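Regression test case RT-17, inverse folding.

Input:
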């Protein structure tokens, strides 16, 4: 018998929400894209939708709003070649996109590029409506500009744009090597980051500090609220460990195949992960990087998730659309599977998905309250510890109370559950 604790409460069947009529992520993304552009008066927005979803549910309406120019064979400002201005830029791709032989949507498809990829842009065509790109495999063609944005000139982005070429980090940081990047919002992130190796997660340095851990108004497991003074700086993953990162460990023969992983988006969080599985990944990661990776302590996790705030969530005391996805979050945020990592806004420390997404393992043994909690944030452990702490709730959470920064759960360390994942930490 598996003790479920609050995880059991979180995952009980409920009738207090309305499920989406489809479980297909593509349909959900199609709807989300359309909702974002349907009130627009800019024709480029409808062309962007048609480029991403030429056979989408709203494609006929998009073409109707464009008028005759909406036809795939019609000539428009976006579909004519006004000459090409040479440039040398890096762009991040916002959605899976086609690469065309010529700068028009009716041109033959010569390749594709995945969401989150950084691509070199060598020219601007049709008044900047199309980008001339060169992909890592040597493919040259044109990408619709509305499906990408100019990337910051960061080592991470530049490394991805030039596969196989490692870049030295700024003095005092760990070396940064090539690794997949994740598309982010245009809002600049508040912190620097680093990677220890090509397949290593992106890490954010966190300066030790003092905070109030727990919540006297929350569940009894969150009480008593108490001051914690972290004694050492640490780094923590900007994102949860992704399917792609887990597959790198699988390819090395070090990590097991997780249930259902072949059906998951590679930029979604790894899930169906037991605590023991997480340690297997961490052992492999420490070996290839030469760095002492670990799970964060429960106190480190809450300190990082709060991002210097003292409210229930890092953005305030109430659920706000676009900050988290869960069963009762409403509209496109009520999900049948987690969003890809980094799809929503980052917290003040630059961390993504610290509420919802997947429940995240920590290093601590489960205790039913904060009685006898350590004052320095050290890991709470004991011999023969069977149950470990999870934080942050998940996309399956049926109530906002399970998503609060102080909310706590537990599960057996050797048991997998579909909503459980993790992010890594190191000193």
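Golden output:
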């Amino acid at each position: 018998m598996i003790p479920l604790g609050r995880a059991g409460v979180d995952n009980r069947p409920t009738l207090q929400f309305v499920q989406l009529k489809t479980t297909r992520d593509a349909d959900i993304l199609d709807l989300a894209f359309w909702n974002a552009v349907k009130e627009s008066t800019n024709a480029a927005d409808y062309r962007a939708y048609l480029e991403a979803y030429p056979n989408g549910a709203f494609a006929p309406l998009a073409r109707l709003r464009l008028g005759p120019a909406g036809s795939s064979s019609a000539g428009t400002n976006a579909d004519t070649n006004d000459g090409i201005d040479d440039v040398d830029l890096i762009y991040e791709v916002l959605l899976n996109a086609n690469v065309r032989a010529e700068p028009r949507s009716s041109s033959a498809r010569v390749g594709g590029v995945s969401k989150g990829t950084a691509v070199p842009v060598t020219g601007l065509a049709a008044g900047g409506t199309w980008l001339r790109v060169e992909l890592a495999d040597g493919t040259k063609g044109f990408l619709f500009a509305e499906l990408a944005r100019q990337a910051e000139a960061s080592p991470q982005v530049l490394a991805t744009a030039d596969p196989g070429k490692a870049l030295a980090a700024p003095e005092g940081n760990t070396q940064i090597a090539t690794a997949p990047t994740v598309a982010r919002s245009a809002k600049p992130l508040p912190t620097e980051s680093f990677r220890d190796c090509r397949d290593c997660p992106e890490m954010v340095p966190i300066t030790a500090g003092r905070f109030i851990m727990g919540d006297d108004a929350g569940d009894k497991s969150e009480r008593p609220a108490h001051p914690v003074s972290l004694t050492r700086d640490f780094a923590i993953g900007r994102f949860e460990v992704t399917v792609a990162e887990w597959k790198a460990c699988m390819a090395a023969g070090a990590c097991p195949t997780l249930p259902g992983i072949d059906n998951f988006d590679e930029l979604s969080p790894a899930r169906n992960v037991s605590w023991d599985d997480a340690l297997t990944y961490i052992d492999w990661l420490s070996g290839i990087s030469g760095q002492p990776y670990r799970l964060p302590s429960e106190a480190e996790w809450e300190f990082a998730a709060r991002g210097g705030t003292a409210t229930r969530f890092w953005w305030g005391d109430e659920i706000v659309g676009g900050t988290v996805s869960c069963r009762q979050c409403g509209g496109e945020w009520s999900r049948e599977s987690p969003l890809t990592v980094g799809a929503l806004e980052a917290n003040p420390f630059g961390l993504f998905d610290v509420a919802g997404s997947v429940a995240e393992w920590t290093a601590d043994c489960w205790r039913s309250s904060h009685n006898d909690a350590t004052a320095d944030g050290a890991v709470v452990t004991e011999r023969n510890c069977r149950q470990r702490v999870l934080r942050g709730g998940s996309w399956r959470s049926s109530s906002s109370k399970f998503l609060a920064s102080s909310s706590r759960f537990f599960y057996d360390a050797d048991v997998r559950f579909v909503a459980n994942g993790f992010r890594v930490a190191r000193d």
